[in-house]
Write a structure and sequence with these properties.
mainly beta; Jelly Rolls; six-stranded antiparallel beta sheet; 3 helices
């Protein structure tokens, strides 16, 4: 076998060698984790390409392509009596009715990625954004404001079908004023490493350490919006089931996290559920354990997390002082099917003093089979 491989290399012609070099260069140039090229829009269009705030040229914003009514907004700019803040740097863009912005990305085929970007509502109410990397596409509801600054960071995931893909963000809304669309800023990407099940935990990513990119200079975490069950999740393999509400991915740099460096804050009460399906053996006993607490973000009050699995459930109450802390919850159940859906729901609606939504934190979730040697036999 080694001899044949050597013969193949020796007999490779110049054209084939050039092709191999090009392919290797393309693989090496796949985009790195972090801010996209001009992802914060600090590289400005030439003044000749601006009509007041409107961007006139399709390729006027460096590294981006636009269509429709797109504005280039400076920090502190006003729209009537409303001040338009910018979360990072000095500039952002605004998408008017049916406007879109897109960027070509070099990626690794077959790899899953998460996109994180910041959004602020302006004067429209029921705003939403259509995010696409073909063939994946989802409409993200952004009408709810979760931070006191007015800016929220959202995440969305896709699997690369090609080595070069196009990220498109489109405002499908129609309002009387085309300048009432959402403000966008700070686009970043992160390569997702598919979590694996272990002998000590049948849940994948039970500690939520694998998740979307969080901007280090922002203190409001990253929202994971509701997605269809067959979509890729930034919190893979956890799914967020809801109609319009999200959960918040929190980091230890800005929040109180029970275990490790990340956790999930259930900020939308009973309107969202955090769900994962696990392979189980009908009739076998299992134990689900998890941490329930608060994120240390000033969210004060009576909270509770309800956990469901098979026909069993448990409610874990937590009295939050808003300064961090947690307690462990335990649910013993017997599997009734080959697949068991593990569900976590916040049973209360909580707000901070500034009126923003908050809720209990879920972290360090584990599922084991309590039958003798059963966990080991599942992996044979």
């Amino acid at each position: 076998m080694r001899r044949r491989r050597g013969e193949m290399v020796q007999n490779t012609g110049p054209a084939a060698l050039l092709l191999l070099v090009c392919l290797a260069a393309r693989a090496a140039s796949a985009i790195q984790d972090g801010l996209l090229p001009n992802g914060n829009f600090e590289e400005a269009p030439d003044r000749s390409q601006l009509n007041s705030t409107r961007v006139m040229g399709r390729y006027a914003i460096p590294h981006w392509e636009i269509s429709g009514f797109v504005e280039y907004i400076g920090s502190g700019q006003k729209q009537g009596d409303m001040l338009l803040p910018v979360p990072e740097g000095a500039y952002a863009v605004r998408l008017g009715n049916e406007a879109a912005i897109q960027q070509r990305l070099a990626v690794t085929r077959g790899t899953q990625y998460s996109i994180t970007f910041s959004v602020a509502r302006t004067c429209a109410q029921a705003e939403e954004l259509n995010v696409t990397v073909a063939p994946d596409s989802d409409v993200l509801p952004v009408q709810t404001v979760y931070s006191s600054s007015g800016w929220d960071s959202y995440s969305w995931a896709f699997k690369a079908e090609r080595s070069a893909v196009t990220l498109i963000v489109h405002n499908p809304g129609v309002t009387e004023d085309p300048a009432c669309g959402p403000l966008l800023d700070s686009f970043a990407i992160k390569t997702l490493q598919p979590p694996q099940r272990t002998e000590n935990n049948l849940l994948k990513n039970g500690d939520f350490e694998e998740g979307p990119y969080i901007f280090p200079n922002t203190s409001w975490g990253v929202l994971v919006p509701p997605l269809d069950e067959d979509d890729y999740s930034p919190l893979s393999p956890w799914m967020v089931l809801s109609s319009t509400k999200s959960v918040k991915y929190a980091d230890a740099a800005h929040y109180a996290v029970p275990h490790g460096t990340h956790a999930v804050e259930l900020v939308s009460g009973m309107e969202t559920a955090l769900v994962q399906e696990v392979s189980t053996v009908p009739g076998w006993p299992y134990r689900l354990e998890f941490s329930a607490g608060d994120a240390g973000d000033g969210c004060v009050g009576s909270m509770s997390i309800q956990a469901y699995a098979a026909r069993a459930s448990v409610k874990v109450p937590y009295q939050s002082q808003g300064k961090g802390g947690y307690k462990r919850g335990v649910l013993d159940f017997t599997a009734i099917a080959n697949q068991t859906r593990v569900v976590f729901v916040s049973m209360s609606y909580t707000m901070k003093h500034d009126g923003t939504l908050c809720g209990p934190v879920i972290d360090d979730a584990s599922l084991v089979c309590t039958r003798n040697h059963a966990s080991r036999r599942l992996f044979l």
